[in-house]
């Protein structure tokens, strides 16, 4: 014996001598055992898994070994109840016959939750969408056919009320496994339960600023008075509107852009624009109306942004605004400069 136990036993020998074994066991339990008011069965009933399965098993066994009157079936029920879902349902469906079998199943199912899911590969070059290049009004580069990568069809998005589909940021297998292990939603930082709905998914609409009068003599102020409707901000895409995802290059950076026929202007994510160090100008303030009633001011525009789509170059102006899910939103301001176009939304192809 060492530490406090050694000092206690030395005092016991000095006072009463070496005690008989049964008396020694009783004295050890009185000194180092749990308090008399401790209830192992009550603690087992209230025990819930809050960390790893292995730590939960150690806590459960330390309490179960102190109550010899519990049957094997009762121990299995108490252990399974404290696992919490989804492990609780997984283990209960297997109907383990012993506590050791229940522990083994819980560890195996937890290991399965940590495995990454196999993600489908991106479309290869043969399935990429190509555009012919006879747009003289907007193209300033070579005339070879640019290759645009599409494939974000509306059917691949989770439908939301009102026919709105959410274009969420793609998670890699490691991130998905971490969120499953922590019982978190894939699209927000809240706990996932049955019937969960992400609070941050909303539609943004841009309306002209009503509080500030427009300057009649400045053409830019007159442009700001036009109503703008966005359906792609914060990664949300509506199935009732026509959109297509493409890849564009700005400088040496490859960006994800959304062709959106319901947006009258072009928009760029604020962080992306600052990272690229694009030249900006201040124009008449516009008010972005969020679906929950909030408003966000938008007054910065990045001019002469040079886009490379395939082998074709375009020069556009983009308003700066936080965008979740895409780096760019190219609206009618971009599509109108292409001239006559043939857009097949089913096949996700665009010819101009």
Automatic annotation (TrEMBL):
It holds the Pfam family Asp_protease_2. Residues 2-84 form the Retrotransposon gag domain. Signal peptide: none annotated. It comes from the Eukaryota. SUPFAM superfamilies: Acid proteases. InterPro entries: Peptidase_aspartic_dom_sf (IPR021109), Retrotrans_gag_dom (IPR005162), RTL1-rel (IPR032567). PANTHER family: LDOC1 RELATED, TRANSPOSON TY3-I GAG POLYPROTEIN. This is Retrotransposon gag domain-containing protein. It comes from Paspalum notatum var. saurae.
């Amino acid at each position: 014996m060492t530490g406090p136990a050694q000092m206690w036993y030395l005092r016991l020998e000095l006072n009463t001598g070496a005690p008989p074994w049964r008396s020694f066991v009783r004295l050890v339990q009185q000194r180092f055992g749990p308090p008399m008011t401790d209830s192992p069965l009550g603690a087992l009933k209230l025990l819930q898994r809050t960390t790893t399965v292995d730590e939960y098993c150690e806590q459960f066994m330390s309490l179960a070994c102190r109550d010899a009157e519990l049957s094997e079936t009762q121990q299995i029920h108490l252990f399974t109840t404290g696992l919490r879902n989804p492990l609780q349902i997984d283990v209960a469906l297997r109907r383990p016959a012993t506590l050791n079998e229940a522990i083994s199943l819980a560890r195996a199912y937890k290991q399965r939750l940590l495995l990454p899911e196999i993600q489908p590969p991106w479309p290869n070059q043969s399935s990429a969408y190509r555009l012919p290049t006879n747009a003289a009004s907007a193209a300033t580069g070579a005339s070879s056919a640019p290759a645009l990568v599409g494939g974000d069809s509306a059917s691949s998005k989770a439908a939301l009320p009102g026919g709105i589909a959410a274009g969420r940021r793609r998670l890699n297998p490691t991130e998905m496994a971490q969120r499953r292990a922590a019982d978190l939603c894939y699209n927000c930082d809240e706990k996932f339960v049955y019937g969960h709905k992400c609070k941050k998914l909303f539609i943004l609409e841009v309306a002209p600023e009503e509080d500030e009068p427009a300057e009649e003599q400045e053409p830019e102020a007159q442009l700001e008075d036009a109503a703008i409707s966005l359906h792609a901000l914060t990664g949300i895409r509506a199935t009732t509107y026509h959109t297509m995802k493409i890849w564009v290059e700005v400088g040496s950076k490859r960006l994800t852009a959304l062709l959106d026929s319901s947006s009258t202007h072009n928009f760029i994510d604020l962080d992306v624009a600052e990272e690229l160090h694009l030249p900006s100008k201040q124009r008449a303030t516009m008010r972005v109306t969020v679906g929950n009633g909030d408003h966000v001011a938008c007054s910065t525009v990045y001019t002469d942004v040079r886009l490379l789509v395939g082998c074709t170059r375009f020069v556009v102006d983009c308003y700066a605004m936080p965008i979740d899910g895409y780096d760019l939103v190219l609206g009618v301001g971009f599509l109108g400069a292409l001239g006559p176009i043939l857009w097949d939304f089913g096949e996700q192809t665009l010819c101009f």
